[in-house]
Give the backbone structure.
Amino acid sequence: MPDFRGAFTATLTPFDERGEVDFDYIQRHLRYQEENGIDGVVPSGTNGEGPSLSLHERKRIVEFVIQNKGSMLVIAGTGCANQPETIELTSFAAEVGADAVLIVPPYFYKNVAGHGLADYYRRVLDSAPIPVLLYNIPSLTGVEITDELLQALADRPNLAGVKDTSGDIARTKAYVANFPNLAILNGSDWLIQESLAGAAGTISGLSNVFPHLISAIYDDFRAGKDVSDAQQRINSLKDIFAKYPPFAGNKFALTLQGFPLTHVRPPLVDLSKDERRRMQAELRQIGP
């Protein structure tokens, strides 16, 4: 089983002017992550606009990231809205060498029976020759990863952990307390300091742009240092990004780090020229 302790980046997917995936950008961005202390990456997930990608594109991205990962772990986002594609993408990720997969619950049907969701995940786990982390992000899926679900799946040896992006520190702490054998990874940048008292690590969206801040707060916390100021700085940055369209802010902010401008895929929208000017001014106020 991989060691899931550390700072991970939920990596973005860059699209060029034609809406095609820019693999040269991905390669450069991976080196930026590795050089700034990130322990692993999560491609094709929420920040990677996974639901906007075709199954073929997701396979190409996962394989490319694995081929260019350097020393970092790769936890591939393989959750789809249906079971056959989830199983197909998960099996592919295992075949090409992913260290683990992250699987969001099927996100179209709401208020599904608990035993139905458990059956869904059992079939995926039983078909997956790879460690699996479940992904709790009910704000987008409308489906909660409950304690009852995890207990129903506890006999599956490849159930490795949970990424919790509920934004509720009590939920994260409950996972940690109730499932000590699972790796619990925080998915909220606002809660890194609070979560690391028990969580194995953090999977960050902000670290697409500021990997050094996320790797440093993790390392300093583990070294017993006070990270309150670092968390406040992260919160200030997150407050800025929260004002702008999702994922487009990260892609624009990376241009301020020397990357070319890349795009989101519709129905998401890029920042307007006015939004770019305002974001740049706000980021400059905080400093490098």
Observations:
- Residues 6-223 form a domain with the TIM Barrel fold (CATH 3.20.20.70).
- The chain is about 45% helix and 10% strand.
